[in-house]
Specification:
Number of helices: 16
CATH architecture of the largest domain: Alpha-Beta Complex
Family: Belongs to the peptidase M24B family.
Strand content: 15-25%
Helix content: 25-40%
EC number: 3.4.11.9
Domain Aminopeptidase P N-terminal: 47-186
Catalytic activity: Release of any N-terminal amino acid, including proline, that is linked to proline, even from a dipeptide or tripeptide
CATH topology of the largest domain: Creatine Amidinohydrolase
Distance between the termini: 67 Å
Strand order of the largest sheet: 6-5-4-1-7-8
CATH superfamily of the largest domain: Creatinase/methionine aminopeptidase superfamily
Low-confidence stretches: none
Largest sheet: 6 strands, mixed
Number of strands: 18
Mean pLDDT: 95
Radius of gyration: 26 Å
Structural class: alpha+beta
Oligomer: single chain
InterPro entries: Aminopep_P_N, Creatin/AminoP/Spt16_N, Creatinase/aminopeptidase-like, Pept_M24, X-Pro_dipept-like
CATH class of the largest domain: Alpha Beta
Shape: globular
Length: 479
């Protein structure tokens, strides 16, 4: 027998033929102790999801609705990105299992909910060693159908049952993450009205959701402190922006699901770059650092907070002047957040302050009125982004909602949104004085609309320049 033929049928990391080796399959099926595992869900998740389903049900009487958690995107070759469930699906179920499906069937005046999940492969199942997504040899002990049903107070069935009866879903309304081929094969319908209604419902948070956001924001505030403590060492040892980004991301992963979006750390001339997620530059001494960071809770509700801090503890005179103007605009925006006010009122209030300040500095070459007019907007050169957005399961929550639902609707209690004016003077922008080039400042808070006004959920972080300096130096001293 040759050396080649004496080798086992496969010795690599992929699975082609092990299941055909009887000795192997019988031996790997035996000798495993059962490890009971419960789903990791926040208290109240099931009740909140049931309430969300009831609200959606009332909008579509007699209609079957199908929602999907989705599947992970390929990172490269046979490696996937870490799975993150679809936000609409999570809002309706509280479940974050890859490949899971929800069916809402009309019953009487409401709907009956069934959650279909891929059951974990236990010892004795071929998938135990052959399925890298759900085999417990690969992913560890996992909750089963009964455990999920108990945790979420919903009927849970094995995913193959969904496949077996999917032909009965002809005409059902499907969310975007339901596989397109399945939608076409079964005859389901992608409904613009379904997505519009889901967005509208998700804009107003219930008490449970607000609690999840408070948790995410509190952890985010602590994460800002963790990053501030690392600034001196990142400068002294040349570790750079990437070190501070990693510091926050580690904090977010420790106290939540992870960062709610790509963490932004922009030092010096990188601060004006709106989405500086590369974070591959140095942390410069005695320059401002723009930090845009948010912890995503394990329920997937995320914070979104920005502060601009002086790396050495003190702003330069030019940085201080820019920060003061942004703070003034920020406070003008916050003052507009209350029930009954049009959503965009905060935007216009903050923009007026910015345009007026730029005019006073001589940066704006036209009048304030001309700049603020629909056909002007010259001041937007220095803040081309929006000044806020809804916040929830997505950092830009419900961003695909219709304009009249999102920006044309008055604020109401339960809305959680951000207010984030800024000024961004790029280092190569010859329209501004040399002393302003390379300065970027943003202030962003997460704000809850209450019955009588608003509450700044991230108020534990200061917004005025003197307090920001004091906060920064206090954290440097605690390093």
């Amino acid at each position: 027998m040759s050396e080649q033929s004496s080798r086992p049928p496969y010795a690599g990391t992929r699975y082609p033929r092990l299941a055909s080796i009887e000795v192997f399959t019988s031996s790997i099926a035996e000798g495993w102790q059962d490890v009971p595992t419960k789903p990791d869900v926040a208290p109240g998740t099931g009740a909140a999801a049931a309430s969300h389903r009831e609200r959606l049900s009332a909008s579509f009487p007699g209609k079957t609705i199908v929602a999907a958690a989705g599947t992970a995107s390929v990172r490269n070759d046979d490696c996937d990105y870490l799975f993150r469930a679809d936000s609409d699906f999570v809002w309706l179920t509280g479940c974050q299992i890859e490949g899971a499906m929800l069916v809402l069937r009309p019953v009487g005046a409401g709907h009956e909910a069934t959650l279909y999940i891929p059951a974990p492969f236990k010892p004795g199942d071929e998938g135990f060693f052959a399925n890298a997504a759900h085999g417990e040899l690969w992913v560890g002990s996992s909750p089963g159908l009964a455990e999920w049903a108990d945790a979420l107070s919903i009927e849970v069935r094995d995913l193959p049952e969904f496949t077996a009866q999917s032909s009965a879903l002809d005409g059902a309304l499907a969310t975007n993450r339901v596989d397109a081929e399945l939608v076409a094969h079964v005859g389901m319908l992608r409904s613009a009205e379904l997505h519009r209604q889901l967005a509208k419902l998700r804009m107003v948070k219930d008490e449970w959701e607000i609690g999840q956001l408070r948790e995410a924001i509190d952890h985010t505030v602590a994460g800002f402190g963790a990053v501030a403590r690392e600034i001196p060492i990142s400068i002294a040892e040349g570790l750079g922006e990437r070190w501070l980004q990693g510091t926050f991301d580690r904090h977010a992963r420790t106290f939540g699901n992870g960062p709610g979006y790509s963490t932004i750390v922009g030092s010096g001339a990188h601060a004006p770059v709106l989405h500086w997620v590369r974070c591959d530059g140095p942390v410069l001494p005695d320059t401002a650092i723009l930090l845009d960071m948010g912890v995503e809770a394990r329920s997937l509700y995320t914070a979104d907070v920005t502060r601009t801090v002086p790396s050495g503890g003190r702003f330069t005179p030019a940085e201080r002047e820019v920060h003061d103007l942004v703070e003034k605009a920020h406070r003008a925006g916050l003052a507009q957040i209350r029930p009954g006010v049009e959503y965009l009122d905060f935007h216009f209030a903050a923009m007026e302050v910015i345009a007026t300040g730029l005019k006073d500095w001589g940066v704006l070459s036209v009048s304030v009125d001309e700049a603020l007019s629909p056909n002007g907007q010259q001041h937007r050169r220095y803040l081309a982004c929006g000044l806020g957005h809804h916040l929830g399961l997505d950092v830009h929550d419900c961003s695909k909602a219709e304009y009249e639902d999102y920006m044309g609707a008055p604020l109401e209690p339960g809305v959680v949104m951000t207010v984030e004016p800024g000024l961004y003077f790029h280092a190569n922008d010859l329209t501004v004085p040399a002393e302003l080039r390379g300065i970027g400042v943003r202030l962003e808070d997460d704000v809850l609309v209450t019955a009588t006004g608003s509450e700044v959920l991230s108020e534990a972080l200061p917004i005025d320049a003197a307090s920001v300096e004091e906060w920064t130096m206090r954290h440097h001293a605690g390093f």
